[in-house]
Amino acid sequence: MSPSHPYMANSAEGSRNALLEAVGVSDPDELFRQIPADHRSDDAIVPSAGIRSEFELRRMLEDRLRGVASTDSHVSFLGGGYWKHHIPALCDEIAARPEISTSVWGTPSSDHGRNQAWFEFTSQMGALVDLEFVGLPVYSWGCAAGHALRMAARLTGRSVVVIPAGLDRERRLVIETYCGYRELDGSLSIREVALDPATGTVSLAALADVLDDAVAAVYVETPNSWGVIEADIARIIDAAHAVGAEAIVGVDPISLGVMASPASFGADIVVGSLQPLGIPLNAGGGVGGFIASRDEERYARQFPTLQVSIAPTIREGERAFGMTLFGQSSYGARELGNDWTGNSVYLWAVRAAIYLALLGPQGMRELATTVVGNARRAAALIAEVPGVSVRYADGIFKEFIVDFSDTGLSVARINAALFARGILGGHDLSGTGEGLEGCALYCVTEVTSESDVRRLITALEEVVAS
Amino acid sequence: MSTIRRYHAASWDEPVIYELGAPGRRGVVPPSSWAPAADDLIPADLRRAADPDLPELAEYEVRRHYTHLSQQTMGMVGISLFGTCTMKHNPTVNEQITARPEVAAVHPRQDPSTYQGLLGIVHSLEDELRNLSGMSAFSFQPGGGADAAYLHTVITRAYFASKGELAQRRQIITTAQAHPCNPATAKAAGFEVITLPIEEDGYPSVEALRAVVGPHTAALMLNNPDDIGIYNPHITEFIDAVHEVGGLAFYDSANFNGVMTRLRARDLGFDACMYMLHKTFGVPKGGNGPSVGAYGCSEELARFLPGPRVVKNGETYDLIEPENSVGRVREFLGNVQQLVKAYSWTRAMGTDGLREAADLSVLANNYMEKQLMAIPGVTMAFPGKALPRLEMTRYSLEEYTAETGVTGHDVQNRMTDFGIDAFWTSHEPAFIPEPFTPEAGEMWSKEDLDEWIAVLAHVLEEGRRDPELVRTAPHNQVVAQIDGSGLDDPDTWAVTWAAYRRKTAARQTVGS
User: Fold this and answer.
1) pLDDT of residue A185 exceeding 60
2) Cis status, amide bond into B284, omega within 30 of 0
3) Is this model's pTM higher than 0.90 or not?
4) Is B296 an 8 Å CB contact of chain A?
5) Burial class of B467 by CB neighbour count within 10 A (0 to 12, 13 to 18, 19+)
6) Nearest Cβ partner of A174 from B261, B331, B483?
7) Cβ(A330)–Cβ(B181) under 8 Å?
8) Are the Cβ atoms of A41 and B370 closer than 8 angstroms?
């Protein structure tokens, strides 16, 4: 006889028997009369016994994970939209508290604290991007961009969207999915705007060529997928507005510690990633996206997200937090709602709120300054390795393209050699676009020390000389 | 019957964080740059004119503030029988395992050879779900149940596009009691939505379905059992009717808990199904995620799944892009840390534990039903039909509200005064008046269930004796009932502190 299962209180024989007796059955099987016998698949299931001992379960999982390399075990230069930053210990502590981690829905009064944390998340994100309307998180940066493009299509009644060539492949594929198929209603068609190989930024001339009055939105990112700050972001936004399109800009929120928000140049919708704000990489499971706009009804009415608003209670002088514009969500309006919403990554909103509160304005400025300083210096040092060059050095924030093509070695081979030396080399860009063979995207942040970079350079010198 | 416990929520009168701290304070100091100092790395015209308006607090202040907010969140620290969400024990060991760098610090762009153990766990979880569903392949990319429904509509598009039938297959059929995400995602993907009504048996009729299926049918999306607790015994006829016209049948397994190890979606004939790992498989809900909508499908549809997928080649796990992949519904493998927790949970349970959980959840629901139906004013949706119910039963307070004027919403608020988390009412459309849908699950003890029932009975009695007491509830909560009258008004809604201050100032100016 197995011991009662620790996850199920009524698994204890006495409790179970008390329930059986109260219900008036001798076996739970009698309660499944609704299901026709020929629907049952009992015999098709391969049986397995549960591991009821926590120690044995833990040891099994730890054994399976043994040997996994990570950005902790190795010096990492991997980026590409997923960035290793320091995670303050407090983010871990609060996110792990069971009141927060296990909550589900509640009422404005019973889950008041969590709702306030959500409001503090949207408030701080709004401060960072200089916009006053911020939705609760969506699944990822790519999903935020996709929803924002669909918002723009609804706002303008148009169906063409412009996105940069060279956009990170993962986000590009998500955006394509959100744009739909032309045989069906509501589909959007994509036009690419070329990046200027000389500057690594969106070509204004190419942008002019793809803009007309069919364009619902122009989506760009700064820093962009090649790591380059879009120096002409104001002109890109103006060009979109000139044809009546919405200007949507994707950002790395860390960069906004020193950089002006695209909203200050007139961007209508700003989206981006939550991942750098105190969230572990989790092999790609540490992502989330945000969508922000001006607090104008025209925009607010198009959000597919849930939003939490501050509001009074029936007690004089007291405040609570409740859902605003719930009725326009799919929860409220089913197929008549704006896109769809559901369980997403709201625990990350709590982490991001704590992160931003800990950093504060000075911390965000210092962090961004450290990141850009480290990245520029690292790029300069890497460029001194024989046969290795760095592109767009003047536009770097924290990622940059390293060109190994003159070494005659593939990025894959270089990365394998680096890994053998305890280093995770940059993201291989070979095959992702013209002129990118033999190139890798390197990422340097505040957690990258000078000795990490020196170690990389020593390793690269050995590898290219071999 | 258990006694009613005295309860009062922690209430700190906690300010919004912007009202705390003082200029110059800080909670974290980032490392200094090791590069030579330079002020001109960002062009002047692209620099911030002023620092962002973020709060300034010392670390202990941030810690105290968010600890207070945590204490002001009931979550599952009370008793939560939140129907349709299948509340589960979330084992702490799983949080500790996934906090290890072998999970938390893995970068999604690492070479697959460098994190084989983690990929192996993802693959083993897929094996577990294949066993339970009969499906051929799974994707864990969807970031929640709604995202899995969306993936189904995206795969439906790709499937019919590959056959050259997409222009013709424009309709997705769902049912009135299906979760709103099913019609919403179908519409977002570009399909026309047809919603079948619920008949007097508590489920749609085969005739109603047959009246709408045809050459325009792309897919059927429904759940079974539904969240009323009723199982549609004609479900295979539904699937057949859709297959006969060439459509796809998708099983939203939102209510899988009561039928785990008894039903397999593929064996019933479904082409695809979805499990929510953040509920059924013991992964914490996080107040709305990170969640996972595990999407499983037949061999025929597997080639359309989003990449990357984990496949096993001998002793090695590789990442592949399926042949006709739809691309992505979000980036990379999904919420991988949650997959590890779900795998751990399935191994802790085993198929014997899953069967036991299904049994206990249905047993507990029937226990609840017996007690609740004995409380005056409580009625059951579709009484006399499809008994005994499975893991959930939908009830109504319609008669009680008619008698007292006290609504289900009032009762919900008042129950939180006793440490009972708000119950779930119903998804839209709420075709049962004053609905409430508790789900006992396998986790909560008989004593917990008795306490929940006792509190409901107590509150209903209070409402008869002193309706105002219930109508103005909660009284023992962190804050009083919200005045939601301005939530949809652009002049008063405020989703950021900056908007709140601006609008409050504007009102004061007008009022002065």
Assistant:
1) yes
2) no
3) yes
4) no
5) middle
6) B331
7) yes
8) no
